[in-house]
């Protein structure tokens, strides 16, 4: 944007507000004016719609300081800044907003430049502009936009009933005409560079009139905007990133599509979790069956299929047939009898006999298993049964053709 809207406010919402529209391309004033108070700010909403807006705060309400640091500036030191400033301020540090500037060196000492103002006062102004839909790109103390002078020279310009002053890089003030002379005598600048007629300025130092640059104060400030990088819009008062026009046009459709895609992903995710849970359960069951069939063998779940094939291949054709036939009969029992859990399986190849050590909920369960297996034409022998708390542990032997 080549056009900028500059708005300067004072300490109170009831004080006059100065504004100016400036073209940085032509360095020309497009429009300017003064509002009686903050209630008339709505008049600037239309002017702010298509321009970059800078808010200038009175230098009387913003204090610039240089804080000496124990080491090179880092983010951890930022958290300690309020404690470093406590002895330099007269109010409660919790009432202040501290904006961080540039780290600098003062001789061999590391320092950080900060700007301090009342937190609620700044929040009140920013809230007011937000309610009026005036988007503030930058917030700067007004006197910081005076041209910087060298060799302890002082820049000054008259605005309203005040003189705005800047001494060096990071020292600003706003002085009243009634007591400004005392301040200047105490400051002792090497010379005074003034951008307004200086009849009222006491002769405390040689004066240098910049008559060619006499202009509206806000016009001078607008020309200096490119030379100052500091911005009070940071931390809790950082400007929200403006949404591009394409997003505002397509936001509703994109949000609806995002919700639909999100729901689809959630449904598929739930299905995947359920299927994964079932797969894990089947894997656990397969491992348990393998351990029962081949006690003492090390189980490798990711190679379980190959392990089973290897074990069966090692049994020999006759053994394989007998063993599988007996285990098939045993597996069929699980679908008919509840609370019957095999613990170990032992196969005697020579006798073609499968010994099952199992636990059940009662003696009658073993009898039921024995009856079912006998109905399937097997020779069944039931060993001793013993109580173990709430369960019964016993042994059943299945014998096939030798």
UniProtKB/TrEMBL annotation:
It comes from the Bacteria. Residues 247-399 form the GspL periplasmic domain. The keyword Protein transport applies. Keywords: Cell inner membrane, Cell membrane, Membrane, Protein transport, Transmembrane, Transmembrane helix, Transport. One of its GO terms (cellular component) is type II protein secretion system complex. It is a single-pass membrane protein. NCBIfam families: typeII_sec_gspL. Inner membrane component of the type II secretion system required for the energy-dependent secretion of extracellular factors such as proteases and toxins from the periplasm. Belongs to the GSP L family. This is Type II secretion system protein L. It comes from Pseudoalteromonas caenipelagi. The lineage of its organism: Bacteria, Pseudomonadati, Pseudomonadota, Gammaproteobacteria, Alteromonadales.
